[in-house]
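Need tokens for this chain, all 337 residues.
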Amino acid sequence: MPSYAGPPVTARPGEVASALRLLGYLALAIALVISDHRGGWLSQVRVHANLATQPLWWLAGLPGRLGARVQDDAGTRVQLTSENRNLRNELLIANARVARLQTAAADNAQLRALLGVAESRGLDVQLAPILNIDLDPTRQRLVLDAGTGDGVRLGQAVIDAGGLMGQIIQATPSHSTVLLLTDPDHAVPVVVARNGVRLIVYGRGDHLELSDVPLNTDVKQGDLILTSGLGGRFPAGFPVGTVTRLRPDDSRAFLVGQLEPSARLDRGRDVLLLRSAPRKAWTAPQATGSEVALGASTVGTPASATEQTGGPEASGNDAAASPTDANAGPPVRELLR
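Here are the structure tokens for all 337 residues:
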């Protein structure tokens, strides 16, 4: 017999009930597994349960989807902004290149025109680039990147493809200053290409002007005005301008004519410096009939005037005294009416 013997152990009612429930659950699980394996009805239950829980899953994943979309939209916006900035920069660069090419094309065209004039007219010229302009509105002057070290001299005539521009009034070893025709301090002896009438053109700042023209002078709108060669400053025969307007002055005793300069005084980047008198005359397009010699060049004069007078001086005077001639148009006195 043991040295110690306690009271007999008896099972508690609660433990027996738990054990019975566990056995029941096991039996139910085994039954469900067997029935699902044979009939597959539990899979259908799971499908219907998944369909019933889909809205819950959608709601549960909504915050994550919204966050990801906001992040993607923000990244796309930043990328588009960067691409837009790059495209704008490329457009600016392309526009700058196009503007540079256009400028180069314009310069090339001007140089071709200058060289074409020099070659076709047999001119002994020197090409000089324009360095600066005088910003004073009362002065019409240019600064050239050529000086006495390049052969520039005072009084040298300056031309372009259109005609006379001015003359050199100041020269240093590296630079020189051009007094343009439109400067108020400038005056040029000229002739009318149509009939050889001698006049003087004055600069008026923004245009050229014929002042103190007698009323009986044969001058009309559209006449081409050329240098006369008088005074020896400018060679004869270079275009100065075209008469665009005639009006009586304040005293109504003389006419005042306004000219459009033949040269492009406000454009271009290069000019031609005339080294010597041209070997070939710069003939005016309006010249018809016989020709009257004017210094180193020739200009046209009406044939009727030459036949009546037999000489260049007489023909010019007869043309000026005959405003009713068929080639002269209406009398200039009609401007006073």
